Amino acid sequence: MTCSDAREALDALLDGELDAAEEAGLHVHLEVCADCEAELKSLQSWHRTLSGALAGGDIAPPAEARRRAADAAAPSLGRRRIPAGRLAALIAIGLSVGIVASAVGVSRASEVRIARVVERMTEQESRDLRLRAANAEIEHDLADARRAVAGRGDEDPAARAVAVASTNITRRLDEETPETQKSAGERVSITREAEGGTVSVVQFEDGRIRVQTPAERVEARNMEELLSRHGDVCRRYSIGGSDGFLKVADSSAGADWKGRLDLLLRGGAWDENLQWEAFRGWAAARIGDPKEIERRLRVHQERCRATAEMPAPEPAVDVEAIAKKVKALTRTELAQTQARLEADMKRLEERLKAVAELRTRAKGLKIFAEDVGRE
Amino acid sequence: MNIIEGSPVLDATRPHRMKPERSWSEAELVDGCRAGRREALDALVAVYYDRLYRIAYAMAGADAAADLVQETFLAAVRAFPRFRGESQLSTWLISILRNRFSLLLRGRRKWHLAALPDDGALLPAPEPPAVEDDVREILDRVKDLSEELRTTLVLFHVDGMKYADIARAMDCPVGTVRSRLFEARERLRKLVSQTETR
């Protein structure tokens, strides 16, 4: 053990977190190294000082703080998020709009429409803010993931997996379509006799997949699209797999690891299963025992899934400003705004769902990168 | 199943003490809050408030601690439908607190406190306790650490969490906790010694 290794181990020793083997190695080093022995004494004192400074003192919350925390959270108890939020906003806005409406002689029908538009606009603003916050969070997590494997070189499979996944997530975040290359070469192909004829499945360098059956030829941009758009053909001839790994009935063919990642970069989308597969591949290169590999994978999966439970930030929407804006609209503008909002809401809802999934993927990737970057 | 007796650190002399009238298991607290039961929320706050407050105080200082904890409970109540019980409730709450603190530091989020039924005024920050100069120096310098280093340090020294629990709360490997703690203490020691030699 070098003095540099010993230094971090001394901290863990004082924290009671050193495993037996490392502790034995450290004690051997301490017997021959007076500097580290002295450092241990100095560290003991520093740890005591830190604990005393950070945890000492009579720290008590302000009076009423507990009750206020409970009161602030109480309105959200047991709520189904969107409907209850809408209802609360509608009631609040409806009341204030009602007062204005009665003062200026607006009809009951207009009053309801104003309240409806304010409610929809508030929801739209909230969704918009949530989207932006999630985008920023994803970018932050991806940057952390890239940082964790920085310096490992382009050929390192784990670093390459992080690069591919990070590019895929960013691309889906930007709603870009996968790049296409003209006259792309063949990357992986498989041909098999099935249903009384020859079936061949080919994936090209740009990610495109072509399936030739006795009856027809179908193409898709990637495996995911093939399975969803041509599910009938895939079921009939038992075609499956993922980008870079093709299966037809009981035969399979796959590109090498680097080739698969290239195909994933161009055609695929980084999903949970790909991450588990990448983790298993990474662990298998280091650990011989298959049971230990699966155990490590389960721990990894649990951590990733726990992250998915972390609540997304709730945005603060200025409902009063929205109400003011809506009340200034003419009747025609109000009708147009309502129509536009109804159309936008569905699009935003779908986008939010997609971004929520990407948020989970980015958090998982960060954990993956930290795991593989550590060793 | 973990049975929670109520936090022993609640001060009996304080007004508006919210001691739960009975013991609640974690599952009962979660189910009660999901079902919209106010007494479950009160019990949740009574059990976990002081622990979260001490962590928030060390992370963010006296000015922001109460707001951070209040935000944490609000976010937790909203997120209960997604809580699958795969981690301890306390670890989950601490991970939310950390999330809120991280957002606060990044300045991405305006504080949006729910309106209160009475005055709705912001909580006055408590007077910071009188401390020795060297302790004050350490508390000041902790604020110069990155969020990740600061949170790791606080969870270990203030809450006494084990490495494995910190790793779960911060979604990182145990080895990362160890190296972050090492780095945090080293940096802090340098920062404090630089100030002393000035």
Keywords:
heterodimer; A: 375 residues; alpha+beta; four-stranded antiparallel sheet; three-stranded antiparallel sheet; 7 strands; 66% helix; B: 198 residues; mainly alpha; two-stranded antiparallel ribbon; 8 helices; 61% helix; 2% strand
Describe the secondary structure blueprint for this structure:
The complex is a heterodimer of chains A (375) and B (198).
Chain A: H1 3-14, H2 20-32, H3 34-55, H4 65-73, H5 81-104, H6 108-148, H7 157-173, E1 186-194, E2 197-204, E3 209-212, E4 217-220, H8 223-229, H9 231-236, E5 239-242, E6 245-248, E7 251-254, H10 257-267, H11 272-284, H12 290-308, H13 319-327, H14 331-374
Antiparallel strand pairs in A: 1-2, 2-3, 3-4, 5-6, 6-7
Chain B: E1 3-4, E2 24-25, H1 26-34, H2 38-60, H3 62-79, H4 89-106, H5 133-142, H6 147-157, H7 163-170, H8 174-197
Antiparallel strand pairs in B: 1-2
The low-pLDDT segments of chain B are 5-17, 108-126
Task: Provide the gyration radius of chain B in Å.
Answer: 18 Å
Structural class of chain B: mainly alpha
What is the residue-mean pLDDT of chain A, rounded to a whole number? 79
Sheet with the most strands: spatial strand order of chain A: 1-2-3-4
Q: Any idea what the radius of gyration of chain A is?
A: 29 Å
Task: Note the total helix count of chain B.
Answer: 8
DSSP summary, beta strand count of chain A: 7
Strand content of chain A: 5-15%
Which protein chains make the most extensive interface, counting residues with beta carbons within 8 Å of the other chain's beta carbons? A-B, 62 and 87 residues
Oligomer: heterodimer
